[in-house]
Amino acid sequence: MGWSNGPPSWAEMERVLNGKPRRSGMPLAGEPVDDGPWSRKRGRYEPPGGEPTIRSSVPYAELHAHSAYSFLDGASTPEELVEEAARLDLQAIALTDHNGLYGAVRFAEAAAELDVRTVFGAELSLGSGARTDEPDPPGPHLLVLARGPEGYRRLSRQLAAAHLAGGEKGKPRFDIDALTDAA
User: Between β-strands 61-62 and 141-145, what pairing exists: parallel, antiparallel or unpaired?
Assistant: First the structure.
């Protein structure tokens, strides 16, 4: 069982403690279950079928969309956002959840299956209120879009640093100078 699969089940713990052999088809301890970001709880993304695609004559990319990971601000899962982007024939779609890249993996998986171009980003809350207090905290917000893998890495570092500097859940403290340097 890999480190990313959560705690072992009681049946798995009993099997290990009693020295019973592994069932066929089960991975060895420490062996990756698969080559993707899924687990026993969530399988590989399967795109829906049936709905016709609307062909667009105007190129358009949605660059500010929240998923359900932006609690009380977005309602759709990352997969649903990509499915709708594919149905509407958008040029690309950005996932910009509040203060994090929470749905990025699911978003990327669905986009790869449906051949939708992606942009990753985040809407940073620059005010002093905690994100957990209300759906959209007061104060200024800054929409940041990552440019390529290097931009994603830089944004990830800034998000992590802000969450650590904030000292409590839902209250990141962004350093504007560090954001400017990372841009």
Answer: unpaired
d(CA 80, CA 166): 31
Residue 170 makes CB contacts below 8 A (sequence gap 6+) with 99, 130, 131, 132, 133
Number of separate domains in the chain: 1
The vertex-84 CA angle with 79 and 88, nearest 5°, equals 150
| Residue 33 resides in a domain | no
- Domain with residue 75: its CATH number is 3.20.20.140
Over the stretch 77-109, which tens digit does the pLDDT of each residue have?
999 999 999 999 999 999 999 999 999 999 999
Strand positions, DSSP E, the chain: 61-62, 92-98, 117-125, 141-145
Query: Furthest-apart CA pair in the chain: how many Å?
Result: 64
* Cβ–Cβ < 8 Å for 29, 1: yes
